[in-house]
Amino acid sequence: MSVNERPFPHIRSEERSPLMMLDTAIALIPPFFMACFYYGVRSLAMGAMTITAAICANWISSLFNGRGIEWWDASPVVTGMIVALMMPASIPFYIPVIAAVFGILVVKFPFGGTGNNLFNPAAAGLAFVSVCFGDQLLSYPVPLEPLPMTVDEGIKLVQGPASMLKMGAIPTISVEQLALGNFAGPMGTTNILVIAACLVYLLVRKNVKWYVPAAYLATVSCFAACIHHENITAGESIVLELVAGSLMFVAVYMLSEPVTLPKRPMAKVLYAVTAGIITMLFRYYGVAIQSAVFALLLTNAFSPLFDYMAERARVLERRAIRENE
Amino acid sequence: MKMNKNHWYARFLRGTKGVFRGNPVLGAGLALPFVVVAASSLQTAVGLSIGALLTMLPVGLLIPLIMQKIPEQFRWLDYPLRALIAALFLMPTRVIVGAISPALMDSVGVYFSLLCVSTLLFASRAMTVEEQRLEKVLLELTRLWLGLTMVLLLVGICREVLGNGTLWGKPLTWMKIRFSAVMVSGLGFILLGFIAALGQKIHRSVLFVCLWIGKNGRTVKDKIVHFGERPPKENKNKISGEIPEETADHEQIPEGKEQE
Amino acid sequence: MKLKLWNTKGIILEQKKEPALSRDLQQFTSSQPTAPAIEPLAEGEEVTLDRLIRLSADAAIIDERDGVELCELLRQWKNKKLSRIVGDAIDDEPYVSSQTNPMMKHSAEAAYGLRLLKTALKAEKAYFAVYREMHFLNCRIPTKIEEFPVRKMGGKYPMEQRAVRRLGDDVFTVGVCALIHLARAANQGTVQSTCFVTVAGNCIGNPCNLEVTIGTPVSHLLDRCGLIMDPTSLSIGSAMMGILVVDQENTLVRPNTRAVIALKEAKKDLRHMDCIGCSRCVEVCPEGLNPMELYRASAANRRQTAQILGLDCCTGCAACSYICPSKLELSDLIQNKQVKWKKEEEKSHEC
Question: Of A106, A110, A131, which has the smallest distance from its Cβ to B180's Cβ?
Answer without folding.
Answer: A131
